[in-house]
Amino acid sequence: MEGASATSGDRLPTVLLHTAELIKYRDERRMLVFTLLHGEPVEGTIRWFDEEAIHLVDAERSEVTLFKHAIASYRSR
User: Residues 6 or more apart from 77 whose CB is under 8 A from it?
Assistant: First the structure.
């Protein structure tokens, strides 16, 4: 590889685009609105997330964990 100093065994891990976006929203503490598959909106900021779930804190400091397979979409507020 031109300009790269790492060997093939030392590659940096690839971060998926949607994961990078969630990291950005978490770090910015941006308010998001998640729409669940059955249509219910859930609003909050991301406290943590992993491969299966996203944990939110809402404006009243209540916390909820959403399983990713139950989320239809999300948007920034």
Answer: 30, 31, 32, 33, 43
What are the domain boundaries of the chain? Answer: 31-77
Per DSSP, 58 falls in state -
Two structure tokens written together for 8: 């093939």
User: CATH code for 31-77?
Assistant: 2.30.30.100
Please write the tens of the pLDDT for every residue from 11-67.
Answer: 656 777 789 999 999 999 999 999 999 999 999 999 999 999 999 999 999 999 999
Which pair of structure tokens corresponds to residue 50?
A: 């992993």
Tokens, residue 24: 């950005």
